[in-house]
Amino acid sequence: MNSSHQTAQQQLAQLKTGFAQLAQSQISAAALGQQARAATDLLQALPPRYSEVLFNLLDRLESSALFTEESCSFSQKGLLDNLQMWADKAQGQLDLLQA
Residue 73 in contact with residue 36, Cβ under 8 Å? Predict the structure, then answer.
């Protein structure tokens, strides 16, 4: 495994931890967004559409944090579920690259 692939795996693991921390209100949506945008090795290892989807979800998540659950058109839990699905698919892509 080369070092950039290893770094991408580490960054994905860190993002998964960040998703869990956000779900438990241990970090903010903005902090998670910063973490995700800094995961450059991960984003470069994945097809471009993965970055587009991730940033779209993060933008919606950061916007939802500005409103109460009732006034927002999408729930934070739903977005977190989608982020977890994104992480699972990203892991599958990284596994294919490693094979």
Answer: no
Q: What angle do CA 9, 11, 16 make, to 5 degrees?
A: 95
In this structure, the number of other CB atoms found within 10 A of the CB of residue 45 comes to: 21
Residue 49: both structure tokens together? 């559409």
**Other C-beta atoms lying within 10 Å of the C-beta of residue 78:** 12
Q: Is the dihedral of CA 20, 34, 59, 86 positive or negative?
A: negative
| Residue whose C-alpha is closest to residue 19's, from 93, 71, 88, 68 | 88
Domain boundaries, the chain: 1-97
pLDDT by residue (tens digit) across 26-81? 999 899 999 999 999 999 999 999 999 999 999 998 887 776 555 555 677 888 99
Tens of pLDDT, residues 5-37:
899 999 999 999 999 999 898 999 899 999 999
Task: Provide the greatest CA pair distance for the chain.
Answer: 46
